[in-house]
Specification:
heterodimer, A: 3 helices, B: 6 helices, about 70% helix
């Protein structure tokens, strides 16, 4: 496997793990929803995060950027879920 | 051992003594001590990615506390270790650049965790009636009730939806 691929996998998985311990979900369904989205969106938005932060594309920066993207996706899905729930209650 | 580690060790021993009537406090002191020893050994051996190792240790402690917590004081402890995770994350991402500030912040969190466990132990002891501390501590009933109340939200892996 190429080095960059390992860095991306390590980054995304570490982001999901840190999010799980820092901001635990409320249920098993929430865990599946948030876990899947953090892995998928962490993978998708890792490169844009790296470019946005203007970090060099070395191993450490790639891990950090993918980890950050994954953590942000985890939190964003949680916030989105709360917004949808609040909207449903109101309507 | 440097002076901070000695101070932390003494405080951990004092906390273990005052919280002798609270077995779960002993459990968390042991878990915290294990995490601290692993992290400090990593630092001493000059192994790479020290903040990352500390981060993983604290995250594992967080997960353990979250999974096994039964009372509210354990949730407060979980929140303190979350703070520790945040400090390590800030260090890893370069927001905290000074090693001294990083170490001081982690020490503060550790001391706060020990204070929480010690305080809960003292309050638990006064509730049982056989504690050596003054009776004025017994007047903190609301705080004791808040700390010793059953955990409000169950862990996520026990809730299907």
């Amino acid at each position: 496997m190429e080095d960059g691929l390992i860095a991306k996998i390590v980054g995304v998985l570490s982001g999901s793990f840190l999010s799980l311990s820092y901001d635990p979900p409320r249920s098993r369904a929430g865990f599946l929803r948030r876990g899947a989205s953090s892995i998928i969106f962490g993978w998708v938005f890792g490169e844009p995060t790296l470019a946005f932060l203007e970090w060099k594309g070395d191993y450490n920066s790639t891990v950090a950027a993918f980890c950050l993207a994954s953590m942000f996706s985890w939190s964003a899905i949680g916030v989105l879920k709360r917004i949808v729930e609040a909207y449903k209650k109101e309507s | 051992m440097n002076q901070y580690e000695v101070a932390l060790l003494i405080m951990a021993l004092v906390t273990a003594f005052v919280a002798r009537g609270l077995p779960r406090a002993w459990l968390w002191i042991s878990v915290g001590a294990l995490s601290f020893v692993v992290s400090a050994t990593w630092w001493r051996l000059h192994l790479p990615y020290h903040p990352a190792a500390t981060l993983v240790c604290d995250a594992l402690v967080c997960l353990t506390i979250y999974s096994l917590a039964r009372e509210e004081f354990e949730i407060w402890l979980f929140n303190l270790f979350r703070l520790s995770v945040l400090v390590s994350l800030l260090k890893l991402f370069g927001v905290i650049q000074e090693n001294l500030i990083y170490a001081a912040a982690l020490e503060c969190v550790n001391f706060a965790a020990l204070l929480l466990l010690g305080g809960t132990g003292i309050l638990a002891g006064t509730a049982n009636g056989g504690h050596t501390f003054g009776s004025w501590i017994g007047s903190f009933r609301r705080l004791r009730r808040a700390l010793r109340a059953a955990r409000r939200s169950p862990p996520w892996f026990t809730v299907p939806r």
